[in-house]
Fold:
Amino acid sequence: MYNSNMSKLKIAELFYSIQGEGRYMGVPSVFLRTFGCNFKCAGFGMLRGELSTEVETIAFAHNNTPYKDYKDLPLVSTGCDSYASWDPRFKDLSPMLTTDAIVERIMDILPHYHWKDEHLVITGGEPLLGWQRAYPELLLHPKMSGLKEITFETNGTQKLTPEFKESLIRWKIINHQLDREITFSVSAKLPCSGEKWEDAICPEIVCEYEQVGTAYLKFVIATEQDFADAECAIAAYRRAGFKGHVYLMPVGGVESVYALNNKNVALMAMKNGLRYSDRLQVPLFKNEWGT
Ligand code: SF4
Structure:
């Protein structure tokens, strides 16, 4: 039985769009973007060993004349494309909301005010940080009962708490008429992200996700070197017992960068018998905030 204790989550964005990446590419989805991340990924789009400082100018501008909304924030072509969802300098844009308030907002953005065939994506930042404690209440809310499929978009470094793990298993079987599915879309960070290998590649943790649902790996690729790194990482995950699929996805939070290497990455995936993931949100919606 649902028993609301009014847990709260700090929410960077909540919007309705098409899932542009991975297993559910093309599926209409509600995106719940939580605030906070354990990484910075300032190496994306930079030469090896260099870190992006693009966000510094935006943070400076925000400090002087605050942006009012995520939609007003500039896009970046280097570093993490969802920087405002974890950088504390933008935390004022992310309200703390009760699970009840979040569910009401979800109902408002669903086209029929209830779940039909839409899928829920819990993303970030890194959504498996401390917010794990609030998800059971969110998922067991009566108005969420029609939800069949959830994806956690994670960097694959966070263990599931025993309570959260148990609640996910319960959620999957609580309504026998729904064939529920839980997916972990694991975007493991290679050295091109600027993060350290030993912090970012955590095979045992990702194998644990497979005990609860379907997990797959998604590597962001720009160069041959990135692919060589991905191969080493894949071998480490396989050695640990990981069984899921592997996707290669082109780097590129902005169209000009994405268009430079999407075809090359697709060809690389084909050549190596791996899956290709597009980033449909880039050509469709220019990867603007809220898409
Ligand atoms: S893990 Fe994801 S959200 Fe966190 S900094 Fe890296 S790209 Fe951004």
User: Anything to note?
Assistant: The CA atoms of residues 128 and 158 lie 6 Å apart. The pocket of iron/sulfur cluster is lined by residues 37, 39-41, 80, 82, 86, 124-126, 155 (CB under 6 Å).
